[in-house]
Design goal:
Blueprint: H1 12-47, H2 56-90, E1 94-106, E2 111-113, H3 119-134, H4 136-144, H5 163-172, H6 184-208, E3 219-223, H7 228-231, H8 235-240, H9 248-253, E4 261-264, E5 273-279, E6 282-285, E7 288-292, E8 296-299, E9 305-308, E10 312-319, H10 331-334, H11 343-346, E11 349-362, H12 378-390, H13 392-398, H14 401-419, H15 431-434
Antiparallel strand pairs: 1-2, 1-11, 3-7, 4-5, 5-6, 8-9, 9-10, 10-11
Helix pairs in contact: 1-2, 3-4, 3-6, 6-12
């Protein structure tokens, strides 16, 4: 996996470490200022004339009271200043983000469509098709409870309904009203998307820690059996990471050989073991997460996945409730080659909004740790990779849609102008010429 060269757009850990450095600098300045104040106070106490009183005991009590007041007051001022700086720099220990994507669905065929160069859409369609090919029960749930019921039949005659009618109808449909649960297809979309994120995390961590500067003693590798709470609640992860010897479809086709099977072999593992296999519509992917030794992975009661370490806690969840979204102008017609000549054809496609909710919380104890941060810097680069793969905005920026549409529209204008007949009038023939 190629790492991005440009500056990360999700700098949660980097910003926290910058704040930690600033806090230490300000703290050192505060200590120096306190020392200076103390020296000045001692100087003033030495040069000021003693209090002239008749009682020596009264003078001693006043001096002690003054010393206590100065000491407690100075300590209080420094403490308030340090607390203010601390809250100023680290008041927001939790950072949140939302990455918005889209899903293109064909109503008549009841299937998710891939979108070229949009990695999430391509993988989602691939995972759904492979799961349905191997597990008939999942395909039955998908077809029994589709993403959305078919809209009214619109005719392409002289009196079509406006497209806004269908969009409003889609936006106002809510499947979770009252006690009515979401269709099973919604759960399948969430689980497949969650599996995409877990696979991206697995690949990113493997690539990140594949470096000699990391000690294997400070890392741990979690496999599918080490996270049963996540495994048992995600049907795609349970299916695709299950050993091929335990899957009837693979046994029928036997072990594939050749370029379609990606093999992984290291010096520590003499016997090569397949990492990922695609064969006859089947998918096998060995699942593992390389993490710092203190990390744990679990599923919260809210359904979110949690990766907890001594430095920070990462949580992410999928939000998909069937709400529609809008794609840029002419994208369906120009990029996906979906003709808009007939309203019925437009209404055959649904575009759904899907979002990834991400939160990263830093612990108070992480501020006093000056070393070992290289084992945790993967968080920023992972969020960047996830944004590139999933974000609708990043996709349209990557393909340069605005520029491409401008060029296409200019070409259309140019072709239309060349097809018009010449505007120069023909010369009239005179009687003399017709002689």
């Amino acid at each position: 996996m190629k790492r991005r060269n440009k500056e990360s757009s999700y700098q949660f850990l980097s910003e926290m470490l910058k704040g930690r450095s600033s806090f230490i600098e300000v703290l050192l300045v505060a200590v120096v200022l306190a020392l200076g104040v103390n020296l000045i106070a001692a100087y003033l106490a030495a040069v000021l004339p003693p209090v002239s009183t008749s009682g020596h005991t009264v003078r001693t009590v006043l001096e002690r009271f003054r010393d206590h007041v100065l000491g407690v007051g100075g300590f209080a001022v420094i403490t308030i200043a340090v607390l203010y700086i601390f809250l100023r720099l680290f008041g927001r220990r939790q950072r949140t983000a939302q990455i918005a994507g889209f899903i293109l669905w064909h109503r008549q065929e009841n299937r998710v469509l891939p979108v070229e160069r949009y990695h999430f859409a391509v993988e989602l369609q691939e995972y759904l098709e492979a799961a349905f090919h191997e597990n008939a029960a999942l395909e039955h749930l998908w077809r029994k409870e589709p993403l959305q019921s078919n809209p009214p039949k619109f005719k392409c005659g002289n009196q079509p309904y406006p497209q806004s009618y269908a969009l409003i109808r889609e936006a106002t449909e809510k499947f979770n009203c009252g006690n009515q649960p979401y269709p099973q297809s919604y759960a399948l979309i969430r689980e497949a998307t969650e599996y995409c994120i877990l696979e991206e995390l697995s690949t990113h961590l493997t690539d990140y820690f594949n470096d000699d500067r990391f000690s294997k003693h400070r890392l741990r590798v979690l496999e599918r059996n080490d996270i049963p709470a996540v495994l048992l609640s995600n049907r795609f992860m349970e299916l695709f990471s299950r050993p091929m010897d335990d899957r009837a479809k693979f046994l029928e086709n036997q072990q594939p050989e050749g370029p379609q099977a990606q093999m992984a072999g290291t010096e520590a593992n003499v016997e090569t073991e397949p990492v990922a296999v695609w064969a006859d519509g089947l998918i096998y992917k060995r699942f593992d997460l390389t993490l710092p030794a203190d990390a744990t992975v679990s599923r919260l009661s809210s359904g979110e996945i949690q990766v907890k370490t001594n430095r920070f806690t990462l949580r992410f969840g999928i939000q998909f409730d069937g709400m529609s979204t809008v794609l840029p102008s002419e994208f369906l017609e120009r990029y996906l080659q979906i003709k808009q000549e007939c309203l019925q054809e437009i209404l055959s496609f649904g575009v759904f909004d899907i979002q990834i909710r991400i939160s990263v919380s830093f612990g108070h104890g992480s501020l006093i740790r000056a070393t070992g941060w290289d084992y945790y810097r993967w968080i920023d680069s992972f969020l960047d990779c996830l944004n590139d793969k999933f974000s609708q905005e990043a996709f349209f920026t990557r393909i340069g849609w605005n520029s491409a549409l401008t060029v296409l529209q200019c070409l259309d204008q140019s072709s239309r102008s060349t097809m018009k007949p010449s505007a120069v009038p023909k010369a009239k023939r005179t009687r003399k010429e017709t002689g």
